[in-house]
Amino acid sequence: MRAILLGPPGAGKGTQATRLAQRYGVPAISTGDIFRANVSGDTELGRSAQAYMSAGALVPDEVTNAMVADRLSQDDVVSGFLLDGYPRNPEQAVELDMMLGGLGFTLDAAIEITADVDEVTERLLRRAQIEGRADDTEPVIRTRLEVYGVATAPLTAFYAGRGLLVQVDGLGDIDSVTERLVAALDAR
After folding, report:
1. pTM for the whole thing?
2. Catalytic site includes residue 88
3. Does the domain formed by 2-187 have CATH 3.40.50.300?
4. Domain coordinates of the chain in residue numbers?
5. How confident is the model at residue 157 (pLDDT cuts 50, 70, 90)?
6. Does residue 133 carry a catalytic annotation?
């Protein structure tokens, strides 16, 4: 399985990525993990990304794309992978297609975990309280969800147009969501 995982903050992507990766025997690849590995490993890409992050700027697509390309060239992805957090826009999706084509791979699915905005807001508020994230207030969370919706709509349309989009309801207990995801993927 070669797939990407989409969904708003708080939809359970990280939890489900881990479960799906175990189920299908492929690595779950988080762009956050890729960034941390490059920065802590003091790679050239990590130093470049750190310079942007230290300045409070977004890391440009070309740096992110290069980090993902490097990760996808490693041996453990030959039998598949699950990307979490990439691509974030249609331009990155086109770049991902080129990366995969260069490796002789194609994408099998773009899985979107959908969730009600009010439910996700409550989840994120609970998480903020548990983890002591004082800056994660309801207005901030709702703004993040709005930004996600605007930024991701073209990406979901991109994958829907290619017949790769699989949407799964992310509400309910963790096991039920996992079962829905596996059923949707197995149906492909």
Report:
1. 0.87
2. yes
3. yes
4. 2-187
5. very high
6. yes
